[in-house]
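Could you help me review a protein record that somebody else here produced? Here is the record exactly as it was handed to me:
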Amino acid sequence: MIKKSNLIYSLSIVSHGQMKLINNLLSDLDQIYKNDFEIILTLNIPEELPILDKYCFPIRLLINERPLGFGANHNIASTYARGDYFAVVNPDLRAIDLVLNDLRLVCEHPSVGVCAPLVRNSQGGLEDSARYFPSFSRLFSKIILNNKNFSYRFEAIPAPVDWVAGMFMLFKRQTFQAIGGFDDRRFFMYYEDVDICHRLSGLGLGVFVQPSTFVVHDAQRASHRDLKHFYWHFISMLRYLTGI
């Protein structure tokens, strides 16, 4: 007889040579979570193997033979997940104030597809992590007219939004797998989060932000500095907007 796992959460983290950052994140989680929790850690490029047995939760290590994109890495991780809930987590987050149960209580509702915490920067300010779906006119306003206004303002209760950035997304694992996860055929990196929220909305499943909890993130803005990332960002944007 196969013993049923009592794990509630499976967190997928992908390292691109970022184990120093990830160790900080794992140390945060180690202080607040014990028995209902697992990490699925993917090494996307060669790097020194991490020490896995110093944390109180189990860590499954996946090592890629070649680098994969954002969606492909998390889709593969989801096939190893044993928790009832599957979280996509950026490697450069800090999570000492994260309350996963606050997110889970939102996700438990049958009409909810994904829930995210607020995202703050290291100075305590809010990041623009929940937005309206992109359109040509909204991108024109943002890029050409330099409109930096946030799409949403949050009060004390969970709020529906169009889409949440893929820094931290909590799904029911069955929901994530039932919709096929991220579209790793059309998107290598960037806009996977927009696309999956759009597909969830099309199925009548809401996208929510839970303002009662938050993670800390300092955006790297790689697409602003690196031509390769800029290319991926531009191509993904076009594919989303045109449906190619």
In short: The two ends are 47 Å apart (CA to CA).
